[in-house]
Design brief:
The protein is an all-alpha fold. It has one domain. 82% of the residues lie in helices and 0% in strands. It has three helices and no strands. Helix 1 packs antiparallel against helix 2 and helix 2 packs antiparallel against helix 3. It is elongated, with a radius of gyration of 17 Å.
């Protein structure tokens, strides 16, 4: 049973972290090339996605391998939700500006 949990964590937990890191690197490289407002916003959103992916990977690890009742799972889930809320706020403030005619 432990082997199945470990394989599931490797695919799901670490896969999420790897994909978030790849997105972060691509957005950072775009920001270094363009240096405009749009690439800066994309990079900040990628940082938020990366924080969510790392926190989610940690929460998955604690859920599979952590001791019950220590509160680490709750703390990891809380951090993941807070990072996700930050991502939503970043994306909400990125509305296109409309001109008054």
């Amino acid at each position: 049973m432990v082997l199945n949990e470990f394989l599931f964590y490797v695919v799901w937990g670490l896969g999420v972290a790897v994909l978030g890191t790849i997105l972060l690197v691509f957005r950072f490289l775009d920001y270094r090339v363009w240096h405009d407002h749009r690439s800066q916003r994309d990079f900040l959103e990628a940082v938020a996605v990366w924080a969510v992916s790392i926190a989610s990977s940690f929460a998955i690890a604690v859920a599979f391998f952590g001791e019950r009742g220590t509160g680490m799972g709750r703390a990891a889930s809380l951090f993941a939700l807070a990072a996700f809320a930050g991502l939503i706020l970043l994306m909400l403030t990125d509305r296109p500006r409309r001109r008054k005619s």
